[in-house]
């Protein structure tokens, strides 16, 4: 203890002295006592003064907020085409290696609401532990094609796929879901199969690709992890980004790529900078879990099948989403609300006996309601309130109007891959959406018999939040010159390949503008 105070005094006199040495002795200060806290605050002041007086201000050519697929691919394209550019990437979460969800299934069984969620935040963004399904299509996953044109959107997605393959994704198979027999069978039952090519990296290979992307970037870009952008303003011809660490970044151009988890922050930036937005869509539904064999005819041939159904009763659009053969159902935390999602692995050693997929009902609101995300959050909160998180129910129990219990789940033939609370989804999901979901399960049963089995498991609630749509032009630039919004936070994309492609597109647009300026 005494030793550390001596060094502390030395630092007061010689503030430039190696701060690292002080860090090493930091645990000696009792941070819990008032005296300890005061010393900690004093230390922070010295540290900040020291840093700011020593560091000359760096003006970046481009500051990128968010290191998800959008941010990563914009940084990669910029550094590949113009290595001389000075680029900063600010990321609220950790570097890839530091991303660890504390849920271990033993000591910590459910979400404890970490300050920054390791599943959603950090290098790789929301996609880091995802199933890594890169769908190359304009039929779903976003509306990038509306901004850049259909052909170019596909070209950009193919370019992203090429890079992913170079970065270690090549062993993953590229599936084309255009099987004419399945397509016809679906059509005969009023189900519409959407066409796409999909590279399924799987969670494990996706991680390898991210490791390689980071290795390709780390010496060319200044990464600032655990650094959340708090505000963005425009002063003296530069974008000024103030981070929650107190650090201030200045850049000539700024790319916002904060994904779905940064949606609230994005809204506040648009309000402050008076960038027009609109919001009206939310998808609500359940995750369905069936034995692998129930869907194997479809998943063996197509892997990822996106099927759309229009309900007879309400004429609503319901779709399958994120199909995971041999996969697991997982929790997802969005802004503190626990919802459900699914993963699968490319490695056969990690296969389960089940397949899971989401059934989502699209809800489009009209005047005067604009808060579509709040509508979804309220429904998800209801399931969190009743079930303490995600609720699971057998399809048979739902149809009979009874809640599922632990005993009923255990006596079923489908073994759940997520520990969720047995309950009653009809107390959570509004009647209209629930009727739609039940109707589609019976429709799917005609194509994949036993989908409507009593033992089919339904997990709720799965919510697909859509970011409000930010008004951007064909360069994805806002009305503020030099400020771009890409990926899921723009409302333009909702998927890995569209978000990544938007990153490449914006980088190329910036490079074009730079060329024109010179
Ligand atoms: C469990 C799961 C599975 C999925 N599976 C698939 C799939 O198989 N296929 C598919 O196409 N899509 C999938 N998705 C969706 C896909 O991950 C996203 O569409 C994609 O990651 C969007 O990329 P993005 O760069 O726009 O945003 P994100 O990936 O969300 O990245 C945004 C980053 O910005 C950071 N950030 C947020 N706010 C701030 C701030 N204020 N300051 C600094 N940093 C900030 C976040 O920490 C995050 O790392 C999945 C999503 C989840 C959650």
Q: In percent, how helical is the residue content?
A: 25-40%
E-strand count:
22
Structural class: alpha+beta
The CATH homologous superfamily of the largest domain corresponds to: FAD/NAD(P)-binding domain
CATH architecture of the largest domain: 3-Layer(bba) Sandwich
Number of helices: 15
* Overall CATH class of the largest domain: Alpha Beta
| Sequence of strands across the biggest β-sheet | 5-13-14-17-12-20-18-19
- The CATH topology of the largest domain corresponds to FAD/NAD(P)-binding domain
What general outline do the C-alpha atoms trace? globular
Unreliable segments of 5+ consecutive residues: 1-53
The N- and C-terminal alpha carbons lie at a distance of 59 Å
Mean pLDDT: 87
The percentage of residues in β strands lies in 15-25%
Q: Assembly type of the shown chains? A: single chain
Main β-sheet: number of strands, strand sense, barrel status? 8 strands, mixed
Q: Any chance you could write out the topology, listing elements then pairs?
A:
Blueprint: H1 2-13, H2 19-25, H3 34-54, E1 59-65, H4 69-81, E2 87-90, E3 133-136, H5 144-148, H6 150-169, E4 174-176, H7 180-188, E5 191-194, E6 197-200, H8 202-217, E7 222-224, E8 229-235, E9 238-243, E10 248-256, H9 263-272, E11 277-278, E12 281-291, H10 292-302, E13 306-310, E14 317-325, E15 328-334, E16 337-343, E17 354-364, H11 372-387, E18 391-394, H12 395-400, H13 406-411, E19 421-422, H14 431-447, E20 457-465, E21 469-470, E22 483-485, H15 496-517
Helix pairs in contact: 4-8, 4-15, 6-8, 6-15
Bound molecules: flavin-adenine dinucleotide (FAD).
Flavin-adenine dinucleotide (FAD) is lined by residues 65-71, 90-93, 121-122, 125-127, 130-133, 135, 141, 228-229, 257-262, 265, 322, 332, 341, 487-489, 494-497, 499.
């Amino acid at each position: 203890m005494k030793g550390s105070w001596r060094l502390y005094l030395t630092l007061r006199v010689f503030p430039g002295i190696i701060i690292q040495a002080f860090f090493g002795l930091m645990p000696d200060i009792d941070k819990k006592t008032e005296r300890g806290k005061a010393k900690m605050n004093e230390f922070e002041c010295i540290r900040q003064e020291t840093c700011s007086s020593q560091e000359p201000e760096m003006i970046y050519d481009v500051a990128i907020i968010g290191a998800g697929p959008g941010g990563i691919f914009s940084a990669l394209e910029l550094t590949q085409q113009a290595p001389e550019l000075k680029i900063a990437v600010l990321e609220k979460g950790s570097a890839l290696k530091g991303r660890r969800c504390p849920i271990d299934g033993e000591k910590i069984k459910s979400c404890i609401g970490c300050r920054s969620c390791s599943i959603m935040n950090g290098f790789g963004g929301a996609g880091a532990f995802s199933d890594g399904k890169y769908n190359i299509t304009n039929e779903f996953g976003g509306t990038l094609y509306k901004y850049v044109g259909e052909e170019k959107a596909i070209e950009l997605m193919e370019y992203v796929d090429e890079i992913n393959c170079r970065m270690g994704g090549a062993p993953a198979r590229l599936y084309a879901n255009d099987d004419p027999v399945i397509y016809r069978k679906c059509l005969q039952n009023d189900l519409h199969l959407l066409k796409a090519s999909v590279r399924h990296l799987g969670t494990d290979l996706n991680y390898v690709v991210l490791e390689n992307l980071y290795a390709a970037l780390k010496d060319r870009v200044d990464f600032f992890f655990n650094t959340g952008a708090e505000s963005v303003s425009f002063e003296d011809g530069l974008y000024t980004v103030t981070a929650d660490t107190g650090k201030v970044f200045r850049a000539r151009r700024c790319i916002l790529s904060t994904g779905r988890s940064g949606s609230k922050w994005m809204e506040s930036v648009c309000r402050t900078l008076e960038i027009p937005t609109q919001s009206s869509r939310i998808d609500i539904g359940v995750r369905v879990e069936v034995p692998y064999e129930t869907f194997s005819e479809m998943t063996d041939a197509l892997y990822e099948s996106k099927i759309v159904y229009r309900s007879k009763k309400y004429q609503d659009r319901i779709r399958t989403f994120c199909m995971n053969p041999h996969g697991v159902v997982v929790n997802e935390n969005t802004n503190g609300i626990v919802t459900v999602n699914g993963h699968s692995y490319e490695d056969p050693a990690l296969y389960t006996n089940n397949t899971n997929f989401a059934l989502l009902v699209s809800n489009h609101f009209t005047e005067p309601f604009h808060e579509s995300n709040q509508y979804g959050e309220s429904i998800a909160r209801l399931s969190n309130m009743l079930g303490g998180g995600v609720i699971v129910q057998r399809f048979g129990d739902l149809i009979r109007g009874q809640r599922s219990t632990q005993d009923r789940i255990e006596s079923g033939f489908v073994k759940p891959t997520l520990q969720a609370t047995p309950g009653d989804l009809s107390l959570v999901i509004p009647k209209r959406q629930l009727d739609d979901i039940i109707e589609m399960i019976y429709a799917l049963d005609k194509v994949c018999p036993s989908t409507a089995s009593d033992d089919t498991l339904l997990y709720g609630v799965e919510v697909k939040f859509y970011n409000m749509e930010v008004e951007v032009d064909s360069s994805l630039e806002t009305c503020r010159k030099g400020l771009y919004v890409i990926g899921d936070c723009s409302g333009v994309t909702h998927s890995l390949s569209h978000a990544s492609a938007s990153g490449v597109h914006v980088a190329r647009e910036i490079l074009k503008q730079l060329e024109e300026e010179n």
